[in-house]
Request: fold
Amino acid sequence: MTGSRPSPTKSSADGCGALVYAVALAAVIASFADDARTQEQLRPYTVVGDAIPQSLTGAKGDVERGRNIVVNRQVGLCLLCHSGPFPEEKFQGTLAPDLKGTGARWSEGQLRLRIVDASRLNPGTIMPPYYRMDGLTRVAPAFQGKPVLTAEQIEDVVAYLATLRNE
Ligand code: HEC
Reply:
């Protein structure tokens, strides 16, 4: 009778070991991913006139992810300065043009350059460069050595802004 008891205990201990291992592995993977992000080289891009005509990733971004980045107070911070068609957002910025209608005013390439590095168009702008690493002062440690947004996130934001066609 007693001889039959230990086996479930033993197998549950094994399960626990596997869980600990899986968690440790996940942590290692996460730290590698973080390293990879920290060392992400900026992808090369070409400015033509006042635009970056080509996608930074070679692909189209995702409209819904882009909207989430724009309204997110930790990621995009756009609403610190901008307002836009976001009825659910109570506090919106008044320091910059309203984002509604931006997709009608600007091409995707023009939007891309404005997000990547608005200072190329207006050296005195207060809008932060979202895809630049050099020439920045007062960069928070979490943002050092990497752009504020990844190339994928830039494309998501561009894809979303391009849908804002109503004034
Ligand atoms: C610190 C303030 C600030 C933040 C944060 C900011 N912007 Fe701006 N943005 C501006 C200002 C000011 C302008 C007006 C042009 C200029 O000064 O360069 C502008 C211009 C723009 C334009 C051109 C608008 C037009 O119709 O002329 C777009 C598009 C834009 N911003 C998108 C964004 C997005 C998307 C984000 C977030 C990822 C963002 N901005 C974050 C201040 C900001």
Summary: Residues 101 and 134 are 31 Å apart (CA to CA).
